[in-house]
TrEMBL record:
Required cofactor names: [4Fe-4S] cluster
All residue ranges annotated as the HhH-GPD domain in the record: 46-194
EC number: 3.2.2.31
SMART domains documented for this protein: ENDO3c (SM00478)
Family of the protein in this entry: Belongs to the Nth/MutY family.
GO biological process, one term: base-excision repair
Catalysed reaction equations from the record: Hydrolyzes free adenine bases from 7,8-dihydro-8-oxoguanine:adenine mismatched double-stranded DNA, leaving an apurinic site
Keyword Transit peptide in record: no
The keyword Hydrolase appears for this protein: yes
Name of the protein in its database record: Adenine DNA glycosylase
Top enzyme class: hydrolase
UniProt keyword annotations, A-Z: 4Fe-4S, DNA damage, DNA repair, Glycosidase, Hydrolase, Iron, Iron-sulfur, Metal-binding
Function: Adenine glycosylase active on G-A mispairs. MutY also corrects error-prone DNA synthesis past GO lesions which are due to the oxidatively damaged form of guanine: 7,8-dihydro-8-oxoguanine (8-oxo-dGTP).
Amino acid sequence: MNPSSFSPRPTERLRDDLLVWYKEVSRSLPWRINRTPYRVWVSEIMLQQTTVRAVLGYFERFLERFPDVDSLAEAPVEDVLKLWEGLGYYQRARNLHKAARIIASGGFPETVEGWMNLPGVGRSTAGAVCSIALGQETPILDANVRRVLGRLRGISPGDAVRESPDLWELSKAFVTEASDPGEVNQALMEIGAVVCLTRKPLCTVCPWSLDCASCGAPEEILNPPRKKKEKQIRIRTALIPSDESGYFLVQGRDRLLEGLWDVFSVSGPPGEGQMPFGKVLHEYSHFREEVFLVREERSLLEAALGETSSLWLAKGEESPVALTGVARKILRFRDSQKKRKKP
Ligand code: SF4
């Protein structure tokens, strides 16, 4: 990438081309219809760290159950977590619920700063809500938009693009004096999601191919190899009643799993004499978990649980509470085993 050899057209021209392209190819997404602050905010939180494809079904179910901020604020957080089950990064759901309670009593913020005062809302999310729902000229810079604009200007990936203040300026230039700043921001998100892909960007169909400092750049320049950090491995042993009648569920103990329910387990590998019948692996952003599955007498498990608050989930019963990813994997593992056993 050689930014000095490029003299791209003014940002307004790039914006015009972007909007023409967006009008032709934009996907019809439920949160693009009826752009209220509530709908846009919920969709933006759901889309953090997640793809549009993953969010689609969740958004509609969520809006059906919580059609407005009051219904969300009045619901117990457990109901919110249950609807969020499987979408991951549960802190987003807890923050959404906390923020809904603040909004229900004080009203929706009307500025980027006001939105940023709410739990779980950063500058880019605030910019997206203010532009899309309120028509304000507020810039965004989520990971996709940062990548696209960084490539457009030939800023090296990695720390340089993450820390470049110029990209906020550039994003701001795109929405300044735009007739619909929200649409410009959605177009920026869209080009990052469907054309300027992290790997193998589709430069030949990009509306900016003649202006972009990175057009056609080789993979090793766009995505220089990074040293992978070794993840810490945590090991525990899930205890399953040997009569196969169901599971004891307990609430997650650390902040990551707060409000979610997990299959009763103890930390560390199986003890002496405990023969695991399976193992479940689960990746978190900072560590990997290995969970051995062992059978144990139900009466012994009841004794081990003692005063610990627990729930009994009978075999075949739909869980009424939100389960951790590991718990869902354990239930699926058991189901697949039972199917395999059938003649
Ligand atoms: S030309 Fe290629 S690298 Fe540049 S913005 Fe378009 S897709 Fe991305």
